[in-house]
Amino acid sequence: MDARRALVVGGTGFIGRYVVAELLQRGYRVSVLSRRCFVEDATHELVRGDTEQLDEDGWAELLAGHDAVVFAAGRDDRTVPPAPAAPYFHQGNVAPVERLAAAARRMGCRSLVVLGSYFTAIDRQRPQLALANRHPYIRSRVEQAAAARRAAGPELPVAVLEIPFVFGASPGRPSLWAPAGPLLRSRLPLFAPPGGTAVVPVRAVAQAAAGAVERRAAGDYPVAAENLGWAQLVERMALAAGRPGPVRVHSMPASVLHAAMRGVGVKHRLRRLEPGLSARLVGPLLTSDLFLDPSVCRDELGVVAGGSDELDEAIRDSFST
Q1: Contacts by residues 138-141 (CB-CB < 8 Å, ≥ 24 positions apart)
Q2: Cα–chain-centroid distance for residue 306?
C-alpha cells in the first residue's frame, strides 16, 4: 500500500478543494470522489460516484491502495426537506460514513477524517439543551460520529473536525456569503443580535484535515480561528464587502430574532417542511455564545493558518466572487 495516498470524498466542494490542495502540498497522492461534474486536473485522480448509493463493497473498491480517507461531503443545515427531516439527514450524513468506515477498516486504511459541525461541540458543552433531540441536523452529526467509530472499531482512528462558519473563496463558484454583499455594502442600517460564534478561514480547516491524516488523530477536534460577537462579525464582513467606514452595527434584541424564527417555523409547518435546525427552537441557541477553543486545532493538529489578518483576507475573498 502507498502510505501517502488519500481519498477525499467531496473533494470538488468548497472545503474539499482546499483539503485536496493541502494534501497535495504535503506530498500525498490524492483521489477525489464527487457526484458532480468536474474539470479535469492532472494533479489528482477524479472518480465520479454517489456517496448515498455506494455500499460497503463499493467503498472498499474505491479505497483499495489508499492509506487515508477524508469525508468532506454530506447534507448541511441550510437545506429544508419535507417533514420528517431525520431520515433525510441520516441518509446523507450517517449511513454513507458508516459504510465508508467499515470499508476503510476492512481495507487497512490508517486514518479516517470526517468534516462535521461545531454544533456537536456545543451539544457536548451544553447537554442541558438536548440539541441532538431537538434538531435533526445536529442529531445526524452526533450519530455520524458515533456510527463512524462503531464501524471503524479500535483498529482505525477516526477524527471528527467540528467546523463553525467558514470564510474563503472557491474558484468558479460564488461564496455562500455573496448574497449578503449588497446589503453589507449599502448604506442601510445593519443590525446584530446578542451572542456570537466561532469563525475560521477555509485554509485552516484544510490544514486541520491534513494534520489529522498525518497524525492519525482520533477524537473530536473543534476547529476555530477566532470567537466573535455577531456585531463584531457583521462589522468585519461589511468592511470586507466594501462598505464605507466607519461601520456602525445596531443592537437587535434577542426577542426580535426569536419571534422571526418562530414565524419561519410556522411557515415551514404549513408547507410540511422541517429544517435541520428547528426554527421554533433555534433562536435562543443563535443568540448565545457559540464559541470554541482555538488552541485545540493549533496544538493537536498543527494548524498555523487563521491569524486575524488571514481571517480578514478570507472574509474579503468571500465577497470578491
Answers
A1: 138/276, 138/277, 139/86, 139/89, 140/75, 140/86, 140/89, 140/90, 140/92, 140/93, 140/94, 140/276, 141/93, 141/116, 141/117
A2: 16
What is the span of the domain harbouring residue 84? 5-179+196-227+291-307
Q: Retrieve residue 181's grid coordinates.
A: 454583499
Q: What is the CATH number of the domain that holds 93?
A: 3.40.50.720
d(CA 35, CA 296): 33
CA-based nearest residue to 16, from 76, 92, 73, 78: 73
Contact present, 188 and 285 (Cβ < 8 Å): no
Establish if 274 belongs to a structural domain: no
Q: What is the pLDDT of residue 1?
A: 40
pLDDT for 91-132, tens place per residue? 999 999 999 999 999 999 999 999 999 999 999 999 999 999
Distances (CA, A) of 265 to 249, 253, 275: 27, 19, 9
Between CA 268 and CA 166 the distance in angstroms is 27
Query: Pairing between strand 190-192 and 158-163?
Result: unpaired
Q: Indicate the residue type of 319.
A: F
Number of domains in the chain: 1
d(CA 316, CA 321): 10
Domain assignment present for residue 81? The answer is yes
What residue spans of the chain are helical by DSSP H?
A: 14-25, 56-63, 86-89, 95-106, 119-125, 131-134, 136-152, 181-185, 202-215, 230-241, 254-270, 279-286, 295-301, 308-318
CA gap 87, 32 in Å, rounded: 27
Write a three-state SS string for 142-188.
Answer: HHHHHHHHHHHCCCCCEEEEEECEEECCECCECCCCHHHHHHHHCCC
Question: Which amino acid type is present at position 97?
Answer: V
Using CA atoms, how far apart are residues 302 and 44, in angstroms rounded to an integer?
24
Tell me what the mean pLDDT of segment 19-30 comes to.
96
- Whole-model pTM: value is 0.94
